[in-house]
Amino acid sequence: MKRLSVFLLSIFLLLLLSNNSTAQQAKLDSIYQLYLFASIDTTKVNYLTELGAAYEEVSKVKGLAYSREALELASRIKYNKGICIANRQIGEYYYSQLNYSEAIKHFLKAIEAGEAAEMHASVSRIYNLVGIIYSNQEKEELSLKYFKKVAEVAEKMNDKQRIAVAYNNIGIAYKGMERYNDAKAYYLKALKEFEASNFKRGIASVSSNLGIISHILKDDEAALKYYEISINTFREMKDTTSESGIWTNVGELYNDKGEYQKALGFYERGLKYASGFNNNGFRQDAYDGLSKVYANLKNYEMAYYYKNKHIALKDSVKDEQGMREVAEMEKRLANEKQEKEIELLKQKEEIQALKVKSQSEELKKSNIIIFSVAGILIVVIAMSFFIYKGYKQIKRTNIELAEKKKEIQDSINYAKKIQESMLPEVNILAKHFPKGGFGLYLPKDVVSGDFYWFNELNDTVYFAAADCTGHGVPGAFMSMIGIDKLNSFIDKKVEHLPQILSLLNISIKRSLKQKKDSYSSKDGMDIAICSLNTKTKVLNYAGANRPLWILRNKEIIENKPTKASIAGYVEDYQEYVGHTIQMYDDDLIYLFSDGFADQFGGPNKKKYMSKLLKKTLIDIHQMSMPDQEIKLNKIFNDWKGDLGQVDDILVLGFKI
Q1: pLDDT, tens digit, for every residue of 394-404?
Q2: C-alpha 389 chain-centroid distance
């Protein structure tokens, strides 16, 4: 099951903020005048923290400067209330800049001072912020510790909404620790408190979380009930964006249950809402879900289509995130520049005071010293900033690469399951080839661009070996489309092999929207296809760039293919040539991709080549078919040695 989004709640949701710029400026002027005329230090600290909070809406950097000034004065007079509030405000500034390490440092100092001053409401707000930071970093045990502290304080204060927020967040921490029953218990407690206060967003958010956890616990009836509550509540709030995310969760539920048509409907509804509001995150989820459900319905064209949409959107979102990160970094640099300007301004004010009190010569010396120190300090700060920035960027990049690698590997493993489910079992051909057969199948990556195929119609068995463009996931998608098309032709009783290849060419070009002189995909495949009447022993063959080898009387007879691929750059109505061969007892049939012959290795690190492959097959042809496969595998590995595998490997052999 994919990782579904949960709703992590902040106590800020409980604060309703309004802002009028004129009134705000008047308020700032009023507080500043009161601060100037205050004679008691604790009163000055209180006004400074008020200025810090008020400037939050106007200039974060100016607000930070007042909060730091408040902290300096409060620390000097040991005023715990001021220390708590100032540290919290500074921590919130760094939290908004995503500088979590600096934020936590100030939050912990705020907690220490707040607990000493018995400032329960402020302390619980800080606990919650620390818990959210640890949750964002997936440090679930630490986040649980702080969310529980929020709950303890809120219960003592009998603050119902704060209690509900804490219970919801505790549930999310337990979910991250895979303690699903504990998570559900806390979600239920949160829902009860939100319902008691009729807090709509809380009800909708925690109901969605209950839907996710109920599905994980295999209680899909309850999951659907909670999803319905969440959807209806978001709809009452006219929050269609959040509603679209719930529809994709419902689609995931039905997909996991195997009710693919229902899943399809819900994914499409989620996509419709997400597209209407241009929510790329939910659109990504919907595309990914649609790809999976179409794969489960064996409609591989649509699965391929939506997987491409998912990958393309993910890449574009990554670009958007990158631009946002750049903008955020520029904003941080501008803020830090303002911080330094404020610090320099304070230094200049101090220097001016020294001018009034000192003689001119002493002042000149002082200026030289002060500016020298300031210059060195600025250089050191700048160097430290860029070093730290580089370290954080490298660390962030490494985390993103690890997450992306895991996501890609999960997708590839999923593609492997789909591909394996479509490939036939070679041993089923035993009834048609009682003297045996084998299939040497060695993908270069987890999934393969080579595939083998067979089917039956009356007394005739059809079999093929194909080599799709590329290898890995792109080749695997092509192989699934190819298998699906070939099966559909046999179902429609198309028996003539050149006609099958012509139809395969046309249908793949249409599926991939390949047009002449366009920028569309040019993917295609090479293939050798045969049909054998098991009564008359008449073998028919047609090939697109892949030959048929028949080994008879210690010689290989090569039947050459049409020099054209399937799809890609080939004309829409390309014709393919067929061959008819009378087979005899103990004749050997070999079909293969080009991977074995193209493998580099041996003493001179050269290709194996078709000529050597022919000699090898002649040398081993008297072995049983299973022993031939084992021998070929050993010969390939010995030839390859320490070199990497160049391409997917496929060799099929059958004995008449």
Answers
A1: 777 777 777 77
A2: 25
Positive/negative CA dihedral, 600, 606, 611, 612:
negative
Residues 85, 86, 91, 92: is their CA dihedral positive or negative?
positive
What gap in Å lies between CA 443 and CA 472, rounded to an integer? 8
Q: Give the whole-angstrom CA distance, residue 561 versus residue 544.
A: 6
CA distance 501 to 562: 11
Q: CA–CA separation, 510 vs 139, rounded Å? A: 49
| Residue of 523, 451, 438, 531 whose CA lies nearest to 483 | 451
Of residues 569, 563, 549, 565, the one with CA closest to residue 614? 549
| Helices vs strands, H then E, count in the chain | 20, 13
589 beta partners:
550, 654
Say how far apart CA 201 and CA 424 lie, in whole Å: 52
Read off the pLDDT band of 25 (50, 70, 90). low
pTM for this structure? 0.51
Q: What percent of the chain has pLDDT over 70?
A: 79
CB 169 within 8 A of CB 135: yes
Q: Indicate left, alpha or beta for 324 from its phi (over 0: left) and psi (-120 to 50: alpha).
A: alpha
5, containing H or E segment: none
3-state secondary structure of 581: strand
Cα–Cα distances (Å) from 34 to 15, 43, 67, 347, 648, in that order, read 26, 9, 16, 24, 79
Q: pLDDT confidence of 60, banded at 50, 70, 90?
A: confident
